[in-house]
């Protein structure tokens, strides 16, 4: 049976590329675009960080979605510097929570039709990393059990 080695699953590598591309595509209707001289993902990131005059109760979930971008960047480092065949289990569960949390923009946007391709690809990148991480864990467990 093939040893899993320390490799990056194709689905995770694809998610990283999709994540990077999503930052340069329109995120929501009325948002700025590259032709306006703005990186749309950066503008969306700033919106998620919110108005400092609003209370933390209003700002907490959007801020967490903004911070989830850091989780994706951490996944790159963890995959490239990992010392075992599988990344830590907390990472898979963190991505599942982040993916679910990031869907909240569907409800906050007012209309699903206001969200653009940049948002959907950004969300997809989190879902793909989640699938890849749980898939790696499943494969590692199957290899350990000899299945």
Describe the structure.
The chain is mostly helical and 147 residues long. It has one domain. Helices cover 66% and strands 0% of the residues. The protein contains six helices and no strands. Helix 1 runs antiparallel to helix 6. It starts with 9 loop residues before the first helix and ends with a helix. The N terminus is likely disordered.
Give me the secondary-structure topology.
Blueprint: H1 10-22, H2 40-49, H3 56-81, H4 89-102, H5 104-108, H6 117-145
Helix pairs in contact: 1-6, 2-3, 3-4, 4-6
Q: Give the overall shape.
A: elongated
User: Structural class of the secondary structure composition?
Assistant: mainly alpha
Number of strands: 0
Give the topology string: H per helix, E per strand.
HHHHHH
The number of domains is 1
Give the helix proportion (percent range).
55-70%
Low-confidence stretches: 1-5
Arithmetic mean of pLDDT = 84
Amount of beta strand: under 5%
- How would a textbook summarize the main sheet? none
Count of helical regions: 6
The whole-angstrom Rg is 17 Å
Measured between the Cα atoms of the first and last residue, the distance is: 9 Å
């Amino acid at each position: 049976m093939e040893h899993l080695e320390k490799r990056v699953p194709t689905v995770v590598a694809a998610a990283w590329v999709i994540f990077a591309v999503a930052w340069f595509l329109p995120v929501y209707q009325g948002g700025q675009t590259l032709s306006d001289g703005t990186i749309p993902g950066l503008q969306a990131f700033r919106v998620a960080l919110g108005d400092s005059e609003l209370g933390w109760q209003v700002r907490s979930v959007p801020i967490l979605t903004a911070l989830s971008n850091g989780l994706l960047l951490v996944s790159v480092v963890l995959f490239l510097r990992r010392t075992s065949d599988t990344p830590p289990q907390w990472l898979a569960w963190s991505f599942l929570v982040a993916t679910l949390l990031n869907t909240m923009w569907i409800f906050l946007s007012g209309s699903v039709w206001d969200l653009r391709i940049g948002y959907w690809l950004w969300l997809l990148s989190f879902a793909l990393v989640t699938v890849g991480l749980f898939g790696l864990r499943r494969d590692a467990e199957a290899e350990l059990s000899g299945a």
